[in-house]
Amino acid sequence: MEFIKNQLDGYGMSEQTMGYLSNLIMVVFIAVVSILANFIAKKIVLKTIIHIVNNNRYTWDNIILEKKVFHKLSHLVPAIIIYYSASIFPPYQALIEKAAFTYMTIVTITVFNALLNAFDAIYRSFEVSKIRPIKGYIQVAKIVLFIVGGIVVISNLIGQNPLIILSGLGALSAVLMLIFKDSILGLVAGVQLSSNDMVRVGDWIEMPKYHADGDVIDITLNTVKVMNFDKTITMIPSYALISDSFKNWRGMQASGGRRIKRSIFIDTSSISFCTREMIDEFLKIHYLTDYVTTRLDEINAYNMEHRINTESKVNGRQLTNVGVFREYIHQYLKNHPKIHKEMTMIVRQLAPGDNGLPLEIYAFSNDINWGVYESVQADIFDHIFAVAPTFGLRAFQNPTGHDIVQLKESAEFSREY
Fold first, then answer.
1. pLDDT of residue 74
2. Would you state the torsion angle of the CA atoms of residues 7, 12, 13, 18, taken in this order, to the nearest 10 degrees?
């Protein structure tokens, strides 16, 4: 400034005119220096950084570049020049410093915000992010960043110590707790969900209370986003997964098997002892040949040992059609290519009731894909229903309108003849 005034003094200007003109020249000079510094930062330094990032073997720095961390950082250069040039203009020094410092604070906040976004994106590139998501913690860090940044900006503008504003916020703690209630609950829930490994991105969860039944696609501070199988999106509060009950199907997906648990109801009036003709037919069935032969040998040996009169089937041990049918289903499942052989496989009788005798198939398919699973289950029961008459069994079914019409026609035919 003194150099400019000395140069202008030789032109015989008045003191006031020389002061205005020297200030104007200095402002233009600082503006030119700031623009030049900004140009160097963006066109030379930034391009050099981009070239280094794009030509190394690391990938995490590319994500930082994508989030424009370095681009935002370059905005600090002209602001720093203006801030340290404020002393040249004593009457306006405080105002210039406040404006420049406020701008630098805002730019710093945006840089750290972009850096947190980049850190989240880098973390998501690892498989551990599905097990231990940190998006909730990132959001908490952003809340703290914006609060601290806001306090610094306000304290700078009003010329007060930030600690004074913080002490004033202490009196508003109850209000802040009310405002950030969901965020606090979400943070606590996020810690519990993560530490106990209760839910991950990609898990299939079922929560009827919120009509959620699908895959978790995102876990944030306040919500867990679920894409249902009908492609609708359900938002569940994070703390609801702690306070309420939900079903996580991850265990099924990890096991590689999906449970089949369904019954066929047998008409109890069709259950009987096996006749010689039935046994001869059973011996022709591939899955039953060994079983029937072995069982007949055991039964005959037992009956002979105990001198049982076999003229009556009530005496001693006998084969029943439902017992042979149960063994057939078990052997059929053991030889089915889509049934998981290393997991539980049971064909059992449940308590008979109004709908007949339930024969329950309890097994696991070796493909957890929903469409494949339903197809396997349908194929198995198609076969079971089709072969039941071979064993002299009838599947139970409540009378329909067609059955009633048939009975009525049969009764009318009987009366006529």
1. 83
2. 20
Give the SS3 label for residue 257.
coil
Q: How many domains does the chain have?
A: 3
CA distances from 202 to 154, 205, 257, 341 (A): 43, 9, 17, 27
Angstrom distance (rounded) from CA 43 to CA 105: 23
181 and 231 in a single domain? The answer is no
DSSP string, 148-208: HHHHHHHHHHHT--HHHHHHHHHHTHHHHHHHTHHHHHHHHHHHHHHHTT---TT-EEEEG
Check: pTM over 0.70? Answer yes or no.
no
| Strands lying side by side in the sheet with 212-219 | 233-237, 223-228, 212-219, 204-207, 247-248
- Regarding whether 343 and 210 lie in a shared domain, the answer is no
Task: Measure the CA–CA gap between 304 and 310, rounded to whole angstroms.
Answer: 9
| Cβ atoms < 10 Å from Cβ of 364 | 22
For 175, counting Cβ atoms within 10 Å of its Cβ (0-12 exposed, 13-18 middle, 19+ buried), the class is exposed
How many Å apart are CA 223 and CA 236, to the nearest integer?
Answer: 5
Q: What is the DSSP letter of 339?
A: B
Same-domain pairing of 149 and 237: no
List pLDDT tens digits, range 281-314.
Answer: 999 999 999 999 999 888 888 888 888 877 777 8
DSSP 366: S
Task: Verify that 34 and 154 share a domain, yes or no.
Answer: yes
Residues 206 and 184 placed together within one structural domain of the fold: no
Most distant CA atoms of the chain, gap in Å? 145
pLDDT digits (tens, 9 = 90+) for 60-71: 778 887 888 888
Q: Note whether 170 and 272 are within 8 A (CB).
A: no
Domain that holds residue 325: 258-272+320-401
Choose the final residue of a domain: 188, 217, 244: 188
Q: Give the helix/strand (H/E) hosting 146.
A: helix 135-158
Do 268 and 201 share a structural domain? Answer: no
* 183 Cβ contact list (under 8 Å, min separation 6): 139, 140, 143, 221, 222
Cβ contact 389:264 at 8 Å: no
Please report, for residues 30, 102, 131, 211, 415, the alpha-carbon distance to residue 224 in angstroms, rounded to integers and kept in the order given. 51, 36, 14, 13, 70
Is residue 283 in a domain?
no
